[in-house]
Automatic annotation (TrEMBL):
Superkingdom, taxonomy of origin: Bacteria
Keyword DNA-binding: yes
SMART domains in the record: 35EXOc (SM00474), 53EXOc (SM00475), HhH2 (SM00279), POLAc (SM00482)
Domain 3'-5' exonuclease: start-end pairs: 343-541
The protein, known as: DNA polymerase I
Assembly with partners or alone: Single-chain monomer with multiple functions.
Length: 952
């Protein structure tokens, strides 16, 4: 008997048939998916390994889940194959392989060998052809097949005995999923693709016909040949003409997309067996790549007698070929998860008390909150999820509404709101355990949750934060969002938020999500948080990051949470006046620019500006980008301005004011919280490579300090009546750290003696006595001092000082000769970065440098400049964190009512009662100066005023 694909269906009742399932892994397809899905990361020698990590995680999970006896990883052998012989342009337009991916191909093949898995590749054929061939052979032998891939080109193979599985989305692909994508069953996919073509692979198809239209045509006419034979009967004139004119092109496309299922076999089918892995060889390979979390999992398996643990993907079913089993009533049953998920909806206090008891018995409780917005100062707490063990979690709904009445309109036919615990009752039931010092509370980005509980009178303590543990371990090597870490360390894709709440205009807030969906999503968040914590926390000791996490990052959570809750008072009227003033000045500048150009145009349009500068005014040849438009970025305009073209300078002026108006004077008014009159910025604790905090929504760290407009914006940040703002910042902390870290004796002496460091530098470099120092010479020394920190070039310094590149290079050379310790330190630091892939702050924080081994000279030079700056900037950030962590206790001990409001890199802003302002300034200065002890003294300076500009 033949099925609709023309191949013999497996005889499921044949007792002699080999019923063991075959898993065919689309290795080539997975390499690219892993490369683009995971952030760039490198092993210690600088070799990129993000795709290798994704691939290794996938193999480990597959072996655990499938318990398969037969697996093969299939690779493309080369870019050209037999299709190029009759259609040379096949895949000709594909972009070049990224440089960061090229070295990973060999490592991925090495990973396959390390897992003791057979691999398949064959010159002249694509991996898809080999998959098609072995799928046919297995089906003829009565063996079910699972193709591990999401590639649409492989969906033509789906049918009785053959299914697909996407490991990155944990999604099974059967006939229904194929129909959903193509609008036809699997056996008609080739016909649809022949018409629609594929721009990525350069399959021509028929112009003007897409997937949807192709599916309609094939459904109506049955197959491609019948359609083309009846093309003259098509009613739509344009479509009819296209099908007649490009009929042969459609037939060629069919040859391109149809997979060859009779390719030569690199290995016999019965050779595709899973062998018992050589665990030590596998561990050695994984350790060489720096994959510590996978090593820990493999070592755990070794302790379990070498067998991979069951993680939930059932073996292929001989009767259906699908990895999903069927229940007695014929409905699909969800495969067991990697950790058995036991999620419970808690809707009364009695049920909640069971979870509180479990938390006390366990001593660890993962906590997560769901809200109707991402602004903790005003968000409504919709629900709380708890987890007490891997896979054991609950969701406690608090403010869910029935979607039918969520718009506020009464609907008497709608069902009543779901049964829920009152928020006050929940807090009463949880307060003791959330504040119990004997129960550790674990969260992910717990700063957000901390604020929500604090608003309800609960101070959560002690805490751990899986996001900050990951940040202490891996810094800027990758992101630290829960979903990303789950993919990275657990090989598990959490339920996406958009799957629960939708996207765009149809997106709903979480309080409108039905409780069954809310339970699956929210309980999983707490569960994954606990599992990540269990995996990552032990690594802190091995990586020697306990001090960074325990003394710098973790204690900062409640400190910054309180800063965000406090917010800073803003004078809306002052901002409004500034906006109006800027609007008037922008109009005046616009008139000047139009007059200089001789015509009106949109200054905000780079395209129009480029045409005016280079086509109309002929100010140079200009440089066009990929879009065909001239580049008009700041560097282009600055160069034109230096050449004396006043229009370029006026455009730069216009851009600066326009940015200030849109980013600050207009936007800040919208960010003022009505209930407090304050702006509540959010500080990201795990977003930078150096450990610095970053400010978002709105960003208050980038307000210009030295321009008059920037000063006016700062003056709109005001103290509450009867209070004063206090600004305390470190004086020249990065230069002090350069002197300390490079052990530059002359600079250390100057700082210890309290000298003007720029004048002292000028005296050393230019040989000018201090009593004969001029402001111009000091200015040059200052530019070099700060420029050296950021790896300034001779060209950059020449532009800054208005001198020739030769003079600038001479200044830098003299500087390096005089401070020879600095040059030695810089070379040693770059050497360390090249060897290890990262640099370290004085407190042990690692700042990763992924481009330090880059073959591109420009990218490598940029990474080398980063390697110099990162330990300096990172150490300054660590010092600031040490100070911030100590200040709340110091203020409390002094009986102060002052509040810390903002951190802007080297500066802290406080609000205190007027009578306490001087005392607060002195106390904070003392704490900041004692935050670290070096041979160079730390100096903090304080200012007091009714507004931020006045205090700074």
């Amino acid at each position: 008997m033949s099925d609709s694909t023309g191949t013999t269906a497996p005889a499921a009742t044949d007792a002699t048939a080999d019923q063991s399932g075959l898993y065919l892994v689309d290795g080539s397809g997975f390499i690219f998916r892993a490369f683009h899905a995971l952030p760039m990361m490198t092993r210690p020698d600088g070799t990129p390994v993000n795709a290798v990590l994704g691939f290794s995680n996938m193999l480990l999970k597959l072996l655990a889940d499938a318990k398969a006896e037969a697996v093969a990883v299939v690779f493309d052998s080369a870019r050209l194959n037999f299709r190029n012989e009759f259609y040379p342009d096949y895949k000709a337009h594909r972009p070049e392989t990224p440089e960061e991916l090229k070295p990973q191909f060999a490592l991925i093949r090495e990973a396959t060998d390390a897992f003791c898995l057979p691999s398949l590749e064959l010159d002249g054929y694509e991996a898809d052809d080999l998959i098609a061939t072995y799928a046919r052979l297995a089906r003829e032998a009565g063996r079910p097949v699972t193709i591990v891939s999401s590639d649409k080109d492989l969906m033509q193979l789906v049918g009785p005995g053959v299914s697909m599985y996407d490991p990155m989305k944990n999604k099974h692909i059967g006939p229904d999923e194929v129909f959903e994508k193509f609008g036809v069953p699997p056996e008609k996919v080739v016909d649809v693709q022949s018409l629609a073509g594929d721009s990525v692979d350069n399959v021509p198809g028929v112009p003007g016909i897409g997937i949807k239209t192709a599916a309609q045509l094939i459904t109506e006419y049955g197959d491609l040949d019948t359609l083309l034979a009846n093309a003259e009967k098509i009613k739509q004139p344009a479509r009819r003409q296209k099908l007649i004119e490009f009929a042969e092109q459609a037939r060629v496309s069919r040859r391109l997309v149809r997979l060859e299922d009779n390719a030569p076999q690199p290995k016999p089918l019965d050779a595709l067996r899973v062998r018992e892995p050589d665990h030590q060889r596998l561990i050695d390979f994984l350790k060489a790549q720096g994959f510590r979390s996978i090593v820990a999992r493999v070592e755990m398996e070794m302790r379990r007698d070498g067998r991979i643990a069951d993680a939930g993907l059932p073996a292929p079913s001989p009767s259906t070929g699908s990895p999903q089993a069927s229940s007695a009533d014929g409905s699909a049953t969800k495969p067991a998860a990697a950790v058995e998920q036991r999620y419970e909806l808690v809707q009364d206090v009695a049920a909640l008390e069971v979870w509180v008891r479990r938390a006390r018995e366990r001593g660890v409780l993962a906590v997560d909150t769901e809200t109707n917005s991402l602004t903790p100062a005003t968000a409504t707490l919709v629900g709380v999820s708890l987890a007490t063990a891997p896979g054991l979690a609950c969701y406690i709904p608090l403010a869910h509404v029935n979607p039918a009445t969520a718009d506020g309109q009464l609907d008497f036919d709608a069902p009543p709101p779901p049964r829920q615990i009152a928020t006050a009752d929940l807090m009463a039931a949880l307060k003791d355990v959330l504040e119990d010092p004997a129960v550790l509370k674990v969260g992910h980005n717990f700063k957000f949750d901390h604020q929500l509980f604090a608003r309800h009178g609960v101070t959560v303590s002690p805490i751990d934060d899986s996001m900050l543990i990951s940040y202490a371990l891996d810094g800027g090597a990758h992101g630290h969002g829960m979903d990303e870490l789950s993919e990275l360390h657990l090989a598990h894709t959490p339920i996406p938020f958009k799957e629960v709440c939708g996207t765009g205009k149809s997106q709903i807030t979480f309080d409108r999500v039905p409780l069954d969906k809310a339970l699956a999503y929210a309980a999983e968040d707490a569960d994954i948080t606990l599992r990540l914590w269990s995996l990552l926390k032990p690594r802190l000791v091995e990586a020697r990051m306990v001090t960074v996490y325990e003394t710098l990052d973790r204690p900062l959570v409640p400190v910054v949470a309180e800063m965000e809750r406090a917010g800073v008072l803003v004078d809306r009227e002052a901002l409004s006046r500034l906006s109006q003033d800027l609007a008037v000045r922008l109009v005046e500048i616009e008139k000047d620019v139009h007059q200089l150009a001789g015509q009106s145009f949109n200054i905000g349009s780079p395209k129009q500006l480029g045409e005016i500068l280079f086509d109309v005014m002929k100010l140079g040849t200009g440089k066009k980008g990929k879009t065909g438009a001239y580049s008009t970025d700041s560097s282009v305009l600055e160069e034109l301005a230096e050449q004396g073209h006043s229009i370029a300078q006026r455009v730069l002026d216009w851009r600066q004011l326009a940015k200030l108006k849109s980013t600050y004077t207009d936007a800040l008014q919208e960010k003022i919280e009505a209930s407090t009159g304050r702006v509540h910025t959010a500080f990201a604790l795990a977003a930078t490579n150096t450990g610095r905090l970053s400010s978002t929504d709105p960003n208050l760290q980038n307000i210009p300090v030295r321009t008059e407009e920037g000063k006016k914006i700062r003056r709109s940040f005001i103290a509450a009546p009867g209070h004063r703002l206090i600004s305390v910042d470190y004086s020249q902390i990065e230069l002090r750290l350069v002197a300390e870290m490079a052990n530059i004796q002359a600079l250390k002496d100057a700082f210890r003696d309290g000298l003007d460091i720029h004048a002292a530098t000028a005296a050393q470099v230019f040989g000018v006595p201090l009593d004969q120092m001029t402001s111009d010479i000091r200015r040059k020394a200052k530019a070099i001092n700060f420029g050296i920190i950021y790896g300034i070039s001779g060209f950059g310094l020449s532009r800054q000082l208005g001198i020739t590149p030769g003079e600038a290079n001479s200044f830098i050379k003299t500087y390096m000769e005089r401070f020879h310790e600095l040059k030695a330190w810089m070379e040693a630091t770059k050497g360390f970065a090249r060897e290890h892939g990262y640099v370290e702050t004085l407190f042990g924080r690692r700042c990763y440098m992924p481009g330090i081994q880059d073959k591109n000279p420009a990218r490598r030079a940029f990474a080398e400049r980063q390697a110099i700056n990162a330990p300096i900037q990172g150490t300054a950030a660590d010092i600031m964190k040490r100070a911030m962590n100590r200040i709340p206790a110091a203020l409390a001990a002094a009986g102060s009512h002052a509040r810390m409001l903002l951190q802007v890199h080297d500066e802290l802003l406080f609000e205190a009662p007027e009578a306490e302002a001087e005392q607060t300034a002195a106390l904070v200065r003392g704490v900041m100066e004692a935050a670290a002890s070096f041979s160079v003294p730390l100096v903090a300076e304080a200012g007091i005023g009714t507004n931020w500009g006045e205090a700074h």
